[in-house]
Amino acid sequence: VCVAPAGGDDEFHKQVLLLLDVPGGQVRLRLAIDGGPSPALAFSADSRTLALTTTYKFRVLDVATGEVQL
């Protein structure tokens, strides 16, 4: 998992979440994050779901598809 500034005029509110396949290093999921700095992340026990929260938003994602579940 990698979170980095996305660039642009408003660095505070724009970041990108990258899920990388190890050991190949290929990007499995790229997701624009808005809502403030320092997102908190947590994977489910089976690693199929990712919970993501920022200052203003909460999301639950399917790791395989990137689809928002909540």
Molecular structure report:
The protein is mainly β and 70 residues long. The chain contains no helices and 6 strands. A 3-stranded antiparallel β-sheet has the order 1-2-3, with no helix packed on it. Strand 2 and strand 3 (26-34) form a beta hairpin.
Set out the fold topology.
Blueprint: E1 2-5, E2 14-21, E3 26-34, E4 40-43, E5 49-53, E6 58-62
Antiparallel strand pairs: 1-2, 2-3, 4-5, 5-6
Q: How big is the Rg?
A: 12 Å
> Pairing-aware structural class of the strands and helices?
mainly beta
**Number of beta-strand segments:** 6
What distance separates the N and C termini?
20 Å
Strand order of the largest sheet: 1-2-3
Molecular shape: globular
Low-pLDDT ranges: none
Query: How helical, in percent, are the residues?
Result: under 10%
Work out the strand percent: over 45%
- The overall average pLDDT, rounded, is 78
Number of helices: 0
Q: Output the helix-strand order.
A: EEEEEE
Major beta sheet summary? 3 strands, antiparallel
